[in-house]
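Problem 12. The chain below contains 166 residues. Write out its predicted structure in token notation.
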Amino acid sequence: LDFDYLCLDLQLPDMDGFDLLAELNRRRLPVPVLIMSANENPDIVHRALKSGAAGYLSKSAPIGEIRQAFDDLERKGRYVSPRLRPALDAFRAGVEHVAEGRVALSARQREVLRLLGEGLNNRDIASRLGVSLSTVKWHVSILFALLDTENRTSCAVAARRLGLID
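Solution.
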């Protein structure tokens, strides 16, 4: 290959960016992949880095930070936007606690998890807790990431196994 880096957005018109990242990894592309995305959610940043991205940068980053990202990729082989790092570190601390059997969920996450375990859908959980549907979706996606699950059933099973819900 005749290029130094590959910049990838996670929102692609024909496929999921994570699917493309997995394919690039499968082919052992010898070029670092820098994710440039408008999505700044720490679970997405964590997932991208865990999936093989060498760096993650917000699309709203100023030009100086973009230059810094490429410099760091050249020198260190990794880059995460300093603006995204605190939330990513907090998210990763939660993931580590899960791996150690010590889960540090917020009170709201525990409520959402309990209702999810009872079989309620997101709309019913939002109604029961008096929060927006998007807030519930956010908490559910965080729970999926923290418990390393991909659907509601496996999330509830993992939560029961860890003693987070009855």
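Discussion. The radius of gyration is 18 Å. Students who got a different answer should revisit the alignment rule from Section 12.3.
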